Amino acid sequence: MKLKLKFILLLMIACCFSKANAQYNKALADSLGADEYGMKMYYFVILKTGKAEVKDDATMKILFRGHMDNIIRLSNEGKLIVAGPLEENPNKYRGIFIFKANSKEEVEEYLKADPAISTGIFESEIYNWYGSAALPAYLPFHQQIEMKKH
Fold first, then answer.
1. Would you call 94 helix, strand, or coil by DSSP?
2. Tens digit of each residue's pLDDT (9 = 90 or more) over 30-42
């Protein structure tokens, strides 16, 4: 009886420390590359004001059109998960990207294809970032609420 009581007590303690999720969907987690916490590694990029100065408005317009085209292409290819500008700030941060990639070098290649970065209008800083593996799942919803395309 004493052994049975110890076993039940041990089982109760184990249950207290184990927090299984009743809503867990293994197939979905696997399809998104999630770890046991539903997370995965991404690359977080901060765009900052670069050293290049472009005075010609027509040239600047072409460079920013290329910037947007690169964002759209990478997003459509499933490589760029999040992109957006930042409000004016003292750090001269201009925007962020979150990439799904295999290496920092891969992200650097994506950034080189952006004319606003390759000409020096923007500079970039790349960081490893641990976030929800479900992050890419919002993209189809965004397409449904986007009234105007860039």
1. strand
2. 999 999 999 999 9
Residues 56 and 65 sit within 8 Å (Cβ to Cβ) = no
For residue range 72-87, what is the model confidence (pLDDT) as tens digits?
999 999 999 999 999 9
Contact in structure between 96 and 84 (CB atoms under 8 Å): yes
> Residue 64: CB partners within 8 Å, gap ≥ 6?
116
Distances (CA, A) of 52 to 45, 70, 117, 118, 119: 19, 19, 10, 10, 7
pLDDT in tens, 111-147: 999 999 999 999 999 999 999 999 999 888 887 888 8
Separation CA 132–CA 130 (nearest Å): 7
Three-state SS at 142: helix
Contacts of 41 by beta carbon, 8 Å cutoff, 6+ apart: 128, 129, 130
Q: Say if domain 37-132 classifies as CATH 3.30.70.1060.
A: yes
Which two tokens mark 37? 């916490």
